[in-house]
Amino acid sequence: MKRFDYSRPTSIAEAVALGAQPGSVYLAGGTNLMDLMKGNVARPTRVIDITRLPGLDTIDVLQDGALRIGALARNSDIAYHPEVSTRYPAVAEALLSGASAQLRNAATAGGNLLQRTRCAYFFDLASACNKREPGSGCDAMGGENDLHAVLGWSPQCIATHPSDFCVPLVALDAVVEIEGRGGRRDVPLDAFYRLPGDEPQRETVLEPGDLVVAIRIPASSAGFADHSRYLKVRERTSYAFAAVSAAVALKLDGSTIVEARVALGSVALKPWRARDAERVLVGKTVGEAAFTEAAAAALADAKPSGHNAAKIELARRVVARAISLAARGTPEHMPALPASVFAQPEGAALHV
Ligand SMILES: Cc1cc2nc3c(=O)[nH]c(=O)nc-3n(C[C@H](O)[C@H](O)[C@H](O)COP(=O)(O)OP(=O)(O)OC[C@H]3O[C@@H](n4cnc5c(N)ncnc54)[C@H](O)[C@@H]3O)c2cc1C
Ligand code: SF4
């Protein structure tokens, strides 16, 4: 590991000033950053420990009814918070399907948004990787890329964003609160990430020094609570990143879908909002025909990036299944690992 300076600011303003210095990086739970530093993939000159900053670990309902999740709130605290599990159950389900209990107790909301891709070539210093070393090439292209991107990729980078948490967040119109040198600003999560294009090393709209301080989910998105699901499919039943995931939230009038939200995970370098699928669903009667048509719309622009054509069909099936689960209704007690062989029948496995 490269030597680095260590700072522990006591105010957000101090953190932002330090963070704006070249070579600086923020440290939250450290579950991603420390791995990257130990592997020499990340080589910061200054690590800014933000864990003692006051007021960033709270989860509050605001006056307008929105839920505000502080950037330092731990993944497990968010998942088990009653306001999350009752109003935004797909968020709880996504968090509980990620990583392990130990990691969820350490990982933070802000760190989850900003975790780096799990592309194996990005972690391997002997491989060409435009994201780690701009202009060096992309060894994933033509390499082992069964799980790489099928949407929004460029010839410069075919990596995916691995977060579970972000998928229901983008479906529910979450907003990221950012404190920077110019003050505070809000950015919708859907606009927070950049697609790779010619600059895969630039992953978000964050500028030097920008600190994520909170994530807000609007009050109106709680209207989907009765018909919300997160479905994650992975290579083994637990403790693995998604091969493909989908968050679906519906509003029904009898058997007619009146509003729909659909997002996919691990198909692109950002959580992928599938607005075409949403348009297909609105006005349709609940049933396999509508689910299949919407899933096809969600993947209509998908293209294999190498050996991963099967992922497109897998994603279609995951979306259709997630819509079907959401239409059946949010279970009173949600199984944390819906695909797990250890899961109880729906309704039996407590997560709250
Ligand atoms: C074995 C393993 C399995 C995992 N499985 C899953 C999984 O299935 N699903 C899933 O979603 N995730 C999974 N993860 C990833 C895990 O969720 C992330 O490592 C974690 O969320 C990162 O949070 P952190 O607080 O530890 O971030 P850190 O490691 O501290 O930071 C990560 C990045 O975010 C930046 N950062 C952190 N906070 C802020 C802030 N407030 N403002 C600006 N920048 C910030 C840091 O500078 C760094 O670049 C897994 C991780 C491991 C190690
Ligand atoms: S896919 Fe992206 S992260 Fe992976 S090797 Fe290519 S450039 Fe690097």
Description:
With 352 residues, the protein is α+β, with helices and mostly antiparallel strands. Helix 11 (275-281) runs antiparallel to helix 12 and helix 12 packs across helix 13. The longest helix is centred in the C-terminal third of the chain and has 20 residues, at 309-328. The termini are far apart. The strands form three sheets. The chain has a five-stranded antiparallel β-sheet with strand order 4-5-8-6-7. A four-stranded antiparallel β-sheet has the order 9-10-11-12. Strand 10 and strand 11 (256-265) form a beta hairpin. It is built from 13 helices and twelve strands. The protein has helices at residues 12-19, 33-38, 75-79, 82-87, 89-96, 101-106, 109-114, 120-123, 166-171, 189-192, 275-281, 288-298, 309-328; strands at residues 5-7, 24-27, 46-49, 59-61, 67-70, 175-180, 183-188, 211-217, 228-233, 244-253, 256-265, 272-273. The protein binds flavin-adenine dinucleotide and iron/sulfur cluster.
Structural class: alpha+beta
* Sequence of secondary-structure elements: EHEHEEEHHHHHHHEEHEEEEEHHH
Tell me the β content: 15-25%
Ligand identities: flavin-adenine dinucleotide, iron/sulfur cluster
Total DSSP E strands: 12
Low-confidence stretches: none
Over all CA atoms, what is the radius of gyration?
Answer: 20 Å
Spatial order of the strands in the main sheet?
A: 4-5-8-6-7
Classify the helix fraction into a percent range: 25-40%
Number of helices: 13
On the 0 to 100 scale, the average pLDDT is: 94
Main sheet: strands, sense, barrel: 5 strands, antiparallel
Beginning-to-end CA distance, first to last residue: 40 Å
